[in-house]
Structure formats: structure tokens, C-alpha cells
Amino acid sequence: MVWTTLHAKTHRTIRSRHLFDRQKKLLVAVSGGQDSLCLFKLLLDLQTKWEWDLGIAHCDHCWREDSQANAQHVETLAKNWGVSFYLETAIKSVNSEAEARNWRYQALIAIAQANNYQYIVTGHTASDRAETLLYNLIRGTGADGLQALTWQRPLTDHIVLVRPLLEVTRKQTEQFCQEFNLSVWEDSTNQDLKYARNRIRQELIPYLQQNFNPQAELAIAQTAELLQAEVEYLEQAAQKLREEVTGDREQVTDNLESYALSSFLLRLNRRVLQKAPLALQRRVMRQVLQQILPDAPNFEHIEKLTALIAAPNRSQTDPFPGGAIAQVQDDWIYLK
Fold it and tell me: What is the pLDDT at residue 63?
């Protein structure tokens, strides 16, 4: 086996970041494109060191006329490599990138659960990380959205999603595939500029590289890496603060001035919150709203609830989605 610098880099990354344990079952999502083929070849070559049980999963969205041929191509690769192959085909077409991503992850989870894989591994790269940061920044997001592609995240209680190539660029995966003569399947949808991510990849990032920073892609990806550590710290601090300010329902009995408040969902001690930095105040409110709203809270929802920390007594919000209302009663914010 030829041992390249990318082999060494991936091996060090897996070990230093504790991405996988030895002798585990890894289900690798392979589209047939250069990133996923590079990923699988690296893992296959490292298999003797780590004693993994590898499998390949392919998800056919049925978007393209050649999607079935694409799936057969990946299946042939799996057979040539001597690994298990799993195919999931969409029964109905999905209408957006977000729907496709959700379906794909659900399909991968189902395959992993049925075949006892502990990890689902994807070929997201530093290039994807840079594109995701720019995409979410343009749409409007906080630090959480800017660092959305993380090294690991749990998908279920027993299955972890892992992205080992987040420090590898798309240019590097292309060179690796060429060096090892890997048969890359070119996805025609990657050239379709109706998709925002394709415009970012083909137009925005090259413009930034040409006019601002030749290493813009890597610099943006590194920013996402820095933000990830900061977000983890802030989330832990916010969780600790939320536990401190959340009132115990059982201790609240007859001392409520309003009978309507006796049916509250939860309450927050705003005197304690007033001493906290604004960043933590907002994160606590976001965590609280995630518990009670039917969908993820947006900026306006978080700001509306945060404003009650310093609002006059008896102030209240208009209804949140789902009908919940927040109201100030002395030292407390009640959500009901």
C-alpha cells in the first residue's frame, strides 16, 4: 500500500480527535463523488491498523436520469473492495436540499440500526465547511450556524455521525483520487447554479480567492473550527445557568398573584439572569424556547423573551408559535 501524507494526516486526526475506536463497525456514505471515494479509500487503507468492519451505503434520491447507474457504479466499487453494500432508494422525490439531507440521514440511520453499525461516516471536507459557513451567514445565523459542520455529533443513542476530512480541501481529495486512479462519478447536479451551495462553490469562493485571499476557503474553514470550540463552551455555560435560573414548579403554590400563572410551563429567575452576560442570556432563552416551541426558535423569538429580563413588572409577550406566552411577575418570567 502506498502511504501518502493524506493517509498520515487522516490517521493522526482520527487518533488525536478520538473519532473512532478500534474494532468498530463503520458505515461510510458513498455518493461516488471524489470526496466520498477519497474517504473510503483512506479508511480502507487504515483498516489494518484499526481493525474496523467497513460498509458502504448509497442513497439514490432519483433526481437524475443516471442515478440508477450511479448506484450500480458504487455497488461495483464495494464488491471490488470486498465490503458490504447497502442501497436506499427514495420512493418519492424530494423538493429541496434540506428535505434531501433529512431523508438521506434517516436512510443512513435505518441502515446502521438494521446492521449494527456504531458510526456513520461522511466525506464532508474543509471546502464544505467553508461553504456551509457562508451559506448560513448569508441566510442569517449565530455562531451555532456558522460552525454547523462539526467533527462528530450523535444521531441516536447508539449511532454517531463522524466527518474525518474537515481539514482536507476538495482540491486535495481530487488529487488523491487521481493518484490512486479512483473511478469518480461526476454528479451533474453539482453544476446546477439554481442551488445556492453550487453558486457559493463555483462563483462566490473563487471570487473571494481571486480578489481577497487565495486561501479564503481554508481560512473560512478554520474560522468554523474556532467557532466550534467557543460554541461548545457557551452551550455548557448556558446549560449550567439555565439549571440555576429555572424555578421548581412544585415549590410554587399559592403565592402567585394571577391564577392564570398557576398553569405555567416553567419559570426563570430574572434577577439571576440580569447578572449574566447578554450572550449567555440569549443562549439560555434559546434553550428554553427549544423545549416549548414546535420548531426551532428564530432571532425574533429569542430577543422577545430576552427583553423580559429587564422589563417592567407585568410585562408580557405576544404568543409564540404554538400559543405559549411569557409574562413577568416580580423576580420571575413565567412561560405558560
Answer: 77
Beta bridge partners of 59: 88
Cα-based angle 299, 225, 175 (whole degrees, multiple of 5): 125
Closest CA to 171 of 209, 117, 145: 209
Asked whether the predicted pLDDT for residue 310 surpasses 80, the reply is yes
Look up residue 34 and give its three cell numbers. Answer: 471524489
- Taking residues 177-193, report their average pLDDT: 88
Average pLDDT rounded to a whole number, residues 80-106: 87
104: left (phi over 0), alpha (psi -120 to 50) or beta: alpha
Residue 333 contacts residue 308 (beta carbons within 8 Å): yes
CA distance 163 to 86: 20
Q: Are 158 and 245 in contact (CB under 8 A)?
A: no
Q: Please report the sign of the dihedral spanned by the C-alpha atoms of residue 122, residue 126, residue 132, residue 133.
A: positive
Q: Does residue 120 sit in helix, strand or coil? A: strand
CA atoms within 13 A on the CB side of 277: 5
Q: How far, in Å, CA of 280 to CA of 142, rounded?
A: 13
DSSP state of 23: T
At 252 the pLDDT is 47
Does residue 249 surpass a pLDDT of 60? no
The burial of 219, by beta-carbon neighbours within 10 Å (0-12 exposed, 13-18 middle, 19 or more buried), is given as middle
Three-state DSSP class for 184?
coil
If you compute the radius of gyration of the chain from its CA atoms, what whole number of angstroms results? 24
Please tell me the distance from the alpha carbon of residue 87 to that of residue 55, in angstroms, as a whole number: 11
Instruction: Note whether 140 and 302 are within 8 A (CB).
Output: no
Neighbours of 47 (CB within 10 A): 14
Residue 160: pLDDT over 60: yes
Average pLDDT for the chain: 91
